[in-house]
Structure formats: C-alpha cells, structure tokens
Amino acid sequence: MPPDGKLQWPDGARVAIALTFDVDGEAPLLGESGDATHRPAAISEWRYGLGAGIRRIRRFLADRGLPATCYVPGWVADHYPDQIRALRDDGHEIGHHGYLHKNPEQVDANAQRAEIEQGLEALERLDIRPRGYRAPYLGLTEVTAGLLHEHEFEYDSSCMGADDPYYEQIDGRSLLEIPVHWSLDDGAYLAWLGEGGSNLPGIAAWVATWRAEIDAAIGEGGLVTFMMHPHWTGRRHQMAALSEVIKHAQERPDVRFTTHGEVAHIARAQLDDA
Ligand SMILES: [Zn+2]
Asked: How far is the C-alpha of 187 from the C-alpha of 200, rounded, in Å?
C-alpha cells in the first residue's frame, strides 16, 4: 500500500472505473409480497431491461471495448438464460443479486438463506460461479453477510463506508467491500415514479454529476463504481447520455475501466499487505 493509502492500479492508471449493471428484470416486482402478475404494464417496464435494454448495452460495451460487472438475480438467470450467457460470453463478470430480489432487511433469516442459495443454484445451472454479491436494494444485513462468508464469496458491493475498497466489519468478520453510493445509481436520476410524474433531477443532472465524480476521482486517485439498470440506462436517449459520460472518462489520461472481480483481486492483495 502506498503512503497516500490509495490502491495502485495496473498500467499506472490513477482512477479505475467499474461499470456495473443490476440486471433486475421483473424480479423486484415478483419478489414483492402480493401477486404482481396481474400488473402486466408495470412488469413490462422492468422486462424491457432484458430485451432492448440489454441488447443496446451489450453493443455499447462491445463497440468501446469496455468490461462490465452484471449483478443478476437467480430468477432472471432461470428465465432469461440466453441473455445472461451472452453477457458472460461477451467477457463480462456475473455477480449474485439474490433470487427474487428480496430486500434482506425485510425478510427473515430463512428467506435470506433461500435468496442466497437459490441464486447460487440458478447461476450454477448456467455454469457461473459468482465471486461477488450486491444486495437487492443494497439492504445487506448481518445474516446475509454471514451467508456470504459461508459460501466463500470474495467481495460485496452494497455498502457506502468509503470511496475505495475497504474491509467492512460485520458480526466480528471482515467483508471485502467495493463501495457504492446512491448518487452513483442511475435510478436516482432516471427512475420514473408513475402517476404524477417524477421529481427526479433528470438526465442533465445525471451526466453532470457523473462527469464531476470522474473529475474528482482523478484529482484524488481511487475507484469509481457506477451502478446502472438496463431498464433505465438501457433506453434510447439515456444510452446517448451515458456515452457522454464514458467519452469524458476516455478522454482523460490514466483512467482504467475494470470489473469488480479485478478490483477485489487488487484490493485484497494491497490491503492485506498494508
Ligand atoms: Zn437490483
């Protein structure tokens, strides 16, 4: 670990940027209590992510040679296996994101175990062994953190305690954390809240905020994790806006695009060596 406490990235990069996509599909609606199947219009908004959304994102990443980390609920792996295999075959990392996208904070210990174990089984049916986990709704609990330890996950990406990777102490154990923040979640700008419209700041604020985050990170050195959802970012003009953010990063020297798996590997080696 260097004296300034900043991780050293390969190729002398000053900043690493991780593009992450939570490929939720309609799992969040189906995982809610009550029967969502009678809400086809609501479900269709989320299903868009596994259709046009994911196709557009795959093409965007391939055109620019960018890696991504895709967090996938097991239900989505079971119902959209071709799309998830295609992401894997494109070279993107696949992480665990529950089974029916149930918020760990809102279900009991047995349900949390089912979410982790059924999610693992679903990804295993596609020959995917995830190294990392992101809690649905970022609702990580002590119980779920214990399950990550039991199932030998290498890292979590749900907490907000630092800018750069660190060890989160939970229930007497250290969990390697690749942190996130709500301001780096596309939903903070793009989610449509239905009747009455949205009070969200919108696309211009999205682009400006993420460009400012890149500039600030370059000033300090470190890691930036952007958190996106194919049913929001994957729509037409939203992708055009994302391309502005990416172009801004690619024009700056010393920026490296990376996956969370690579970040975990680098962070563990350097943090453990400190
Ligand atoms: Zn999600």
From this structure: 9
How far, in Å, is the centroid of ligand 1 from the Cα of 137? 6
pLDDT tens-digit map of 10-47: 989 999 999 999 999 999 999 987 688 888 998 999 99
For residue 127, give the nearest of 79, 176, 94, 99 by alpha carbon.
Answer: 94
Three-state DSSP class for residue 227 = strand
Output the CA 67–ligand 1 centroid distance in Å: 19
Q: How far apart are the CA of 263 and the centre of ligand 1, in A? A: 21
**Å from CA of 23 to ligand 1 middle:** 7
Q: Give the Å distance between the CA of 66 and the centre of ligand 1.
A: 21
Dist CA 243 CA 250 (whole Å): 10
pLDDT in tens, 127-138: 999 999 999 999
pTM assigned to the model = 0.96
Which residues are near ligand 1, the ion (C-beta closer than 5 Å)? Answer: 22, 24, 136
Neighbouring-strand partners of residue 257 = 17
Residue whose structure tokens are 């996106």 = 228
Residue from 1, 32, 17 nearest 228 by CA? 17
